Amino acid sequence: MVDTITEFIADRGYVAIVLLMFAENVFPPIPSELIMPFAGFSAARGELHPVLVVLAGTAGSLLGGLPWFFAGRWWGAERVKRAADRHGRWLAVSRAEIESAEKWFDRYHAPVLVFGRLLPGVRTLIALPAGFSGMALAPFVVWSAVGSLLWVSLLTGAGYLMESRYGTIAAVLEPGSWIVFGAIVLAYLWRLVRQGRKGG
């Protein structure tokens, strides 16, 4: 997987980073903890500019949050939760997870859009309650961009600083990344089976 991600980034550059980070936020097949450090490796090797890497990662992350925001805005809380009850097992989203994100947002409002970007799971769903609340698009974009920029910069910087040990790190992360990816797939399949039994 390490080679797949790095080759995709090497072939498509900043576009690949935007697409991967967009996908990670809409439906996380590959965590950003794998994407951005590898982009940082590429920047350290002179293949990409580090500032543009950060901007591309931030843009992809921000764009990935918009579908969730507009789903919350247009559908409303109850309709989204009912959809999660019916189809959440296919989308890997449950009513309980939506309600948890809603509680976080109700308690902390704008700051949770910043710090929620640092937390797996919360990072994806926190845009929903922002939409539920009727929050204006401009502040949502601004606060989400700040949080995304912070997270992406940390991951990119880590990859950039570890460039000198790229070979060793890649050798360690290659099996580890497949384990993480496999765990995500297995968790998703288990979720489908469990929700199917509940539905039955």
UniProtKB/TrEMBL annotation:
Membrane spanning stretches: 12-30, 50-71, 125-146, 166-190
Subcellular location: Cell membrane
Keywords: Cell membrane, Membrane, Transmembrane, Transmembrane helix
Source domain of life: Bacteria
GO CC annotation: plasma membrane
Membrane topology term: Multi-pass membrane protein
Principal localisation: membrane
Occurrences of domain VTT (ranges): 30-160
Pfam families: VTT_dom
Record-given protein name: DedA family protein
